[in-house]
């Protein structure tokens, strides 16, 4: 029986016409159902709203945000395909689903490789070494405030915002253990700088990655936002400077010791980013293809480290293995540190699965027709500038990656300058509230009781001023893009 199945499969590959007889009627190329006034549309809308509210209440209910979003995406596309099957043509719905799935897979692979490299750097102690180096410089609170701000502004253009924010947040918490005011203002400065720095680079965040991935803006075009993003960071930082303590913190110095291969992993990460950009600009391939090529380099490098690593004391290792000594744990930890799949397993899978549910759910609502209706209101009745400013303000409450994907699904006919404006407002709009971005939420947990929602709100007027100042700077410096 198994041989018959193999033979059938072989014949179907060579002569597909002999084993597949398509008796279904041809699908009209423009066949599309307007389900906005149908029970399928109402059901999908309610399911998506309930799922998103459940995700926002994750800290209250302790229900992982990916669970309701995954269920919502499955239910929405189930009823959509069911409606199309009732009309005898399910192909348009399944094609739309596959198109949204392809967009998600490209995003997933890109983020997977990026976060794998970050986990590898963390295991090599690179981030901890940077923290120790900064702490040991015997700097004043004000100088540390500016140094951590500028560093995270630059780091966040290639490292995801949460990682960059927590890295500099660890420095602020370590040196400010005797100054709650410095910790509060330092963390707020880091949140603003992280969101601003991640906006002028396609590698800095989900929303910018979406725009680059969809081919709306080229890789180098994002750098037009550098000056507006810098203004967004500098305006609140300058205001907070005068509220900082003037004295120096007293900290204990530590030794920096990087393990073998740490610097080469930094080099490989740079090569991987170059491959992603090169694949996109020179070959027209998705950036994820270049990232996966870079992942293979990391895998081969870990293989080299494993094979070339020699134990310093073989006899001691054999003795400890025989009698169950501490070297067993040491060797196990070393093997785990050089295991590439351990790095992949430690990714933020809850966040990645949440984005699957969000992208597929929003894609479903767009296919139903709701996003076209919203687009006609936003970009039809209002000017594109006003629409983009309002969308950016809403990113203080709703995840900016979700909002960006929703706008991309609307396909508004706006010039490059407006796409840059939308990227800017969605990137820096999350700084208005502590819960508006991943760095803010992460730092509230890292600096409990010192950086809080209320301490962030005190500076909201200045942050709002910086929001509009960055918009004005963009419209002045990039007037030729409109």
UniProtKB/TrEMBL annotation:
Protein topology in the membrane: Multi-pass membrane protein
Residue spans crossing the bilayer: 37-57, 69-86, 101-120, 144-175, 225-244, 288-305, 353-374, 386-408, 420-444, 456-477
Locations listed in the record: Membrane
Keyword Transport tagged: yes
Signal peptide extent: 1-21
InterPro entries associated with the record: Cit_transptr-like_dom, NhaD-like
Broad class of the protein's primary localization: membrane
Domain Citrate transporter-like positions: 63-427
Keywords assigned: Antiport, Ion transport, Membrane, Signal, Sodium, Sodium transport, Transmembrane, Transmembrane helix, Transport
Coiled coil region boundaries: none
Family per record: Belongs to the NhaD Na(+)/H(+) (TC 2.A.62) antiporter family.
Protein name: Sodium:proton antiporter NhaD
UniProt source species: Methylomonas defluvii
